[in-house]
Amino acid sequence: MSIVITGATGHLGRKVVEHLLARNVDPSTIVAGGRNGDALASLASLGVRTARLDYEDHASLDAAFVGAERVLLISGTDVGQRVTQHQAVIDAAGRAGASLIYTSAPQASTSALVLAPDHKATEELLEKSGLTLTVLRNNWYTENYSDTIRQAVSTGSIMTSAGSGKVASAARTDYAEAAAVVLLSSAYDGEILELGGDAPWDVEELAATISAISGNHVTVNQLTTDEHSAALKGFGLDDGTAGFVSALDANIAAGLLAESDGTLSRVIGRATTTLRQSVGKLIMPTG
Known about the structure:
Layout: E1 2-5, H1 11-22, E2 30-34, H2 37-44, E3 49-52, H3 58-64, E4 68-73, H4 82-96, E5 99-104, H5 116-129, E6 133-138, H6 146-155, E7 157-160, H7 172-183, E8 192-195, H8 203-214, E9 219-222, H9 225-234, H10 239-253, H11 263-268, H12 275-283
Parallel strand pairs: 1-2, 1-4, 2-3, 4-5, 5-6, 6-8, 7-9
């Protein structure tokens, strides 16, 4: 039997593989699947099995899932195609007789979050599938602010329309470790886990943290949603990307990423990575 990680060539998937190995899982029982050949070769160097896996190639899914006991479906990144792609993975897991763990979004079934619709639709497919399943509703990854942090150090400013809204982010490795824990235990079967960082923060706190670590004073430039979108377009972003970024900030301002009940830290058995730790690692990686 095997544990299959879809999207293993991405940042989250690789970290899940690393956490499984850190928990002394036999590498031969791990199948890391993805589309990036170079990344697959790098994963193979860890001793795990690899498989070229494409959500739109049903034969590749069936081949990768042979003998699978547990499948981690890391949500796809192709907006507009994800639900169909996820259905293909769900169907393949069903044919293999595997249980399935899915990475979703906070409060996906009820939230107005711009990211939620595809996840809500996928969760509905999972409910109808009859599979043994666990849903990991991951909040924001602190690493998603890496470019913002670097730019803030350089320019001394953060442009946002998030207002005083908080983000219950955690480091990607925290979410990956939670996925590894769930993959290795039946204790979470049938559960929907709302996962987020222990200490939600707002942009003012982010700016203060960057200032303290870098030594460069960082201010916050608060804009309206429309002003933010227009500014982003002025920097060369296309309409869709600018609209998405400003809509996400509006969601944050409305508190849609602010909730955390400590479930993530309870699952991984330790406190989640703090904002200061994440910013410090980015700004002073050898410190």
